[in-house]
Each structure stands twice: as structure tokens, then as C-alpha cells.
Design a protein that fits this description.
Length: about 270
């Protein structure tokens, strides 16, 4: 009888401890997602060839400071932007589209406050200087022929973009007139130039709408081969060449992600997971 009493008491204590641990784990996860790193997946081909459908990546939330969009559901707790830092031209950024301030987009940031931008025949002109463009080769993207082009920005950052050999009828993605970017706004473009909803269509991105900087592709699955619901297709769909691929400009190695895993490991250790 006495042993039964102690067993029930131990069970109750264990259940309570598990609830407390679960509560702390949820709080820790929210803090990590809000102020350190948040995982995102790529649903469309607007950033080919650098980001592919099925990529799972980490975005650093602290790279540009914090706004209400750093928090779950964009809770209006943070006024403006705290600890604001200037993005670097050419970085891949996640932001809330100004159309609804809710939907996450991911694009390449090419225009900074004060810049004068225009595009002529698919060549970007920044502050009256054409960026360097080198045609690499022609590839197949779905059923289309696309040119793979290397662009070099004024800060010497280089990356590859896709340009369709034949433009879509009735859609002018190769030209736009001069625009001066006002204070606290940015201009973004998709790397898949003829297949991207970016600042050419949705307008400039307010500083407050920046969510973070894309850091690394953690893992990637070919969604045409496998499905998340079919575990036996996971390995065939795994893109072996896209494991821990750095997205940080001018850095070939991933550097900040191990820190996030270390922090996560410490938190889980404290919670006895």
C-alpha cells in the first residue's frame, strides 16, 4: 500500500516535471525562432539556380536587427526596428511582402537607400554604372532554355542568375526606368529573372519588413522524386550536393550555424531532453 502511494506520487511529480520541461522547451523554441535562427523552405523557383524548390534553410534573425516581423504573427510589440544593421548589397534576404505584410518572400537585395537603379535589356544599372555580366552557358529549366549568367555587383560580389532565352509574351521583365530608392527602403530581385515576383512588381521593401538573412541550405529534397508523407522516398529525393550549402556572400564555408546548434544543444541539455 505504501509502495503504491509513493509510485503514484512519483508519477504525478514526473508528469508535472514533463509539463514544465515542455513549457520551457516551447519558450526556448520561440526565443530561438524570434531572435536567433528560423527555418524556412523554398516553395517556388524564383531564386533558381541558387535556391531550389525543396531547399530547407536557416535564416538569421539578428543580422539586420529586430522588428515586429521578427516575432510570431508579427506581434506589434517592437516599435520600428531595434539594433538596426545595414544589409550588404547582394545578400539573400527574407522579408514580409509590402502587399499584405504577412507573406514571407525570399529574394536577393540589390538596391540600397539612396541608390539610383534601372534595367535595360536585362542588365542592371546601379548609380549609372552597368554591373558586370558574363554569359556562362545555356541550361534547361523545366521545359525552357535559360542562359546561366554571372553577375558582379559594385562591391565585387558575384552570383549566378537565370535568364529565359525567350521572354514571356506580354510580360516585360527585362527593363524598368530609373528609380531612386528612398531612405529605409530596399530593392530586391529574384535570381530567376523572368520568373520572379520582386520589386519590379511588388515595389520597394521597407526596412521594417526585413525578417532576416538567408545563411545556409541545411538540407534539400527533390519534390518531383519524393514526398514528405512517403518516408521511403526521402533518400532517393535527397540532394546530396546541397547539404550545408552557404548562402552568405563571399564566404564558401558556413560559420554561424554551428553556433546555433551549440545554443540549441545547451538549451536541450538544461531541459534534460
Amino acid at each position: 500500500m505504501k509502495n503504491t502511494f509513493f509510485k503514484e506520487k512519483k508519477k504525478k511529480r514526473s508528469f508535472k516535471q514533463n509539463l514544465v520541461s515542455l513549457f520551457y522547451a516551447i519558450i526556448a523554441a520561440l526565443l530561438i525562432r524570434s531572435f536567433l535562427y528560423e527555418p524556412f523552405s523554398i516553395p517556388s523557383g524564383s531564386m533558381y539556380p541558387n535556391l531550389k524548390v525543396g531547399d530547407y534553410l536557416f535564416v538569421s534573425k539578428f543580422s539586420y536587427g529586430f522588428s515586429k516581423h521578427s516575432l510570431p504573427f508579427s506581434m506589434p510589440i517592437i516599435p520600428g526596428r531595434l539594433f538596426s544593421k545595414e544589409p550588404e548589397r547582394g545578400e539573400i534576404v527574407v522579408f514580409k511582402t509590402p502587399e499584405d505584410n504577412r507573406t514571407d518572400y525570399i529574394k536577393r537585395l540589390v538596391g540600397l537607400p539612396g541608390d539610383i537603379l534601372e534595367m535595360k535589356d536585362n542588365i542592371l544599372i546601379i548609380n549609372n554604372e552597368e554591373i558586370s555580366v558574363t554569359k556562362k552557358n545555356v541550361e534547361k529549366y523545366k521545359s525552357f532554355n535559360v542562359s546561366k549568367i554571372i553577375e558582379t555587383l559594385p562591391n565585387k560580389l558575384t552570383y549566378e542568375v537565370y535568364e529565359f532565352e525567350k521572354a514571356f509574351e506580354g510580360l516585360n521583365t527585362n527593363n524598368f526606368n530609373k528609380i531612386k530608392i528612398p531612405l529605409d527602403h530596399f530593392f530586391v530581385l529574384g535570381d530567376n529573372r523572368d520568373n520572379s515576383q520582386d520589386s519590379r512588381f511588388i515595389g520597394l521593401i521597407p526596412r521594417e519588413n526585413l525578417v532576416g538573412r538567408a545563411e545556409v541550405v541545411a538540407i534539400s529534397f527533390d519534390t518531383e522524386i519524393g514526398s514528405f508523407l512517403k518516408f521511403w522516398t526521402w533518400y532517393p529525393a535527397l540532394r546530396k550536393d546541397r547539404f550545408l550549402v552557404s548562402l552568405i556572400p563571399q564566404k564558401k564555408e558556413w560559420t554561424s550555424i554551428p553556433i546555433s546548434f551549440l545554443i540549441l544543444g545547451i538549451v536541450l541539455k538544461i531541459l534534460n531532453f
